[in-house]
Amino acid sequence: MSAANGERPQRPSAEPSLVTRAVRAGIGTDAAHHAVMPPIHLSSNYLFQSPGVYERYDYTRTANPTRDLAAAAIAELEGGCGAVVTSSGMAAVAVVTRLLSAGELLVAPHDCYGGCHRLFTAEDRRGAYRVRFVDQTRAGAVEAVRALRPRMIWLETPSNPLMRIAEIAAWARLAREVGAVCVADNTFLSPVNQRPLSLGADVVVHSTTKFINGHSDMVGGAAVAADEGLHEQLAWWANAMGVTGAPFDSFLTLRGVRTLHARSRVHEENALRVVDFLRSSDLVERVNHPSLPNHPGHEIARAQQLGWGSLLSFELRGGRPAVERFVDGLRHFALAESLGGVESLVSHPWTMTHASMDEPARVAAGIREGLLRLSVGIESAADLIADLELALRRTAAELVVA
Ligand SMILES: *Cc1c(COP(=O)(O)O)cnc(C)c1O
């Protein structure tokens, strides 16, 4: 090549795409042995060259090379300034809410992730900060919250399990006006399908346990900051609280990032086919997925999302007896919590994720006994649909006989 005559070869194109950067994150960074794939640095401590001479790495709770690579990859995908990689999604939530002081108000969605609801409520009770849960999808909600002068606005869109859509740009605008920090939990879509920082959010939170790692074999989290000041504060708290992610989990996370775009394509393709199939079934009353034109958040989702995502829920006719027969008849959808892994899952919010809510609260939130949530995996779509079809047919037959 032209390098032979001392010239640098011309780069054929400018910046590589996010897909390429995700696949190649950290490749070729091993200065010691030139490993193609970056090694896992398990050491808890690092040599000082001399007293008082500080380098990037001294102690793994504070900073670790493997964790740094995972953080850089996630920050890049979200378009952030930097990321803090934590030991769980809830650890990332705890770190971000440390930005709040006593008396300051956090406004969060009334149907936010159960673990967030529990933490926010407990912190409010012990006076760490105040929390107010609101329906962020209701008309006039932004105006109503403006009067409350919140210090932090928490978003989670689409919501679980009804896939309700909040308008990120509208809430981010309000946050800017009142001087609040706008945080978006982007776990359900991943940066492949939604990039909240580009819509005005200040911080993105992830449970990397879900799509980013994507193989249901670790628990982790991340908080991505839009600017360096926020990133420094989050890194300070993560180190002070001792909730930074382990090197091995960081390695798994980075490995997950490499296939995130490729996996997401199959997830979505399969989910759209499952949605189509479920809508054609007489035993299914209603399907909740933002891709459907009759979904109340369809237009906002179309504008703010880059993809529809692979989580959906639907209402089975026949209530609890139908749910039990149907779930029992499935082979490829495992009855389990969590989401975003390569494997398809089915969950029953009434008895699982939302069981801790009292019955009137569940009903008020639109969660009924016949509601099921699917996390559609990357198996063959034909197998998944055949599985659903068979289970539905068996349910219908057994209910008629019963
Ligand atoms: C799972 C999840 C969390 C919590 O993450 P963990 O890794 O389980 O601690 C937070 N938010 C959402 C939307 C989640 O799905």
Describe what you observe in this structure.
It is a single chain. The chain has 402 residues and is an alpha/beta fold. It folds into two domains: 18-257, Type I PLP-dependent aspartate aminotransferase-like (Major domain) (Aspartate Aminotransferase, domain 2); 260-401, Alpha-Beta Complex (Aspartate Aminotransferase, domain 1). Helix content is 38%, strand content 14%. The chain contains 13 helices and twelve strands. It starts with 17 loop residues before the first helix and ends with a helix. The protein binds pyridoxal-5'-phosphate (PLP). Pyridoxal-5'-phosphate binds at residues 88-90, 113, 115-116, 156, 185, 187-188, 207, 209-210, 219, 221.
